[in-house]
Amino acid sequence: MQTADRQQHPGKSLSHSQQTWSYRLTWAFWGVGLATIGMGHTVTSYSAGMAIPDWPSVFGHFPFLFPLHEWFRHWDVFLAQSHRLIVTILAIFSLILTGFFWKIRWNPHKWLATAVFILICLQAALGASRVLLGDIGVAAIHACVGPLCFGLITVLLVVASPSYEQLCRSHHEATRRRWRKAVTVALFIAGLTYLQLVLLAQLRHVLPQQPPIQALLIVIGQGILWAVIGMIVVTAAMVLRKPLCNVMTRKLLWLVIGLYCLHLVLGLSAWIVNFNFPAWFLSHVLAVEYTIVQGGVFQVIVSTAFALVSSLLFAASLALLICAAVDRGANVDSDHN
Q: Which domain holds residue 142?
């Protein structure tokens, strides 16, 4: 009975200091993950992924012994080397955190931490393959796995939080039908936001043989997904309304709504700064002085911010999904009673 209770309520087996420190370490890990994915999007925006032609060495040097004056001499090299170092720090951090979770945490936390570490290693292997093979198709796959990795890190942060563990121990009056609706809506948001990331990865890694019509179809697909996700987010606000869901789920829902609105604004801005369209915006709102400047500062900032917010939206959607799903045990108990 005691073992079953520990597996169902892992927070009971931890001291206050263990719970606090594991949560703080997970927050720090999440921060490194955010920096990693932000730097990765910046590298893509500047097309600096192939600035360093060898791996794991850096122009023949051991990565941590690469001369500083060479590192800061060229902007593309600085971005590529910085990204590699951040990924290395993330992998080491993940290994340490996984060992820490295996020592003090119970299922499923330690297995989730292990899955995150494996996915980070896979992402690093894809990055190395991109450099060694020079295949832009590998770069597109690499761009799809990155947000998925960051999403799992976010899930790990949520399940390690004291609020989530308290939520697992609490019971809410809810029907099984409402629970199914909440989980279904949250699942659709997470799935569609990831599909949008996949389309964005294809748009940011254009193959040489790719016809122009394909890029246009991707943009149209992005617009359709924007509309569908918006409708589902509105549906989620109705299904997960107060007082029918827990406080943590409602906060995550508002976070998803805010990120969706920001994502929409940045997506439209990215279209304008990349293609100078529509004409009325350039005439009456903001006059852009160039037709298209590849790698222009304003263009890079907006494009990188759009990609980063897209990843954050997917991560927040995963967090919303697991918090909506946690009411299942309470629903079963309620139906049984």
A: 1-169
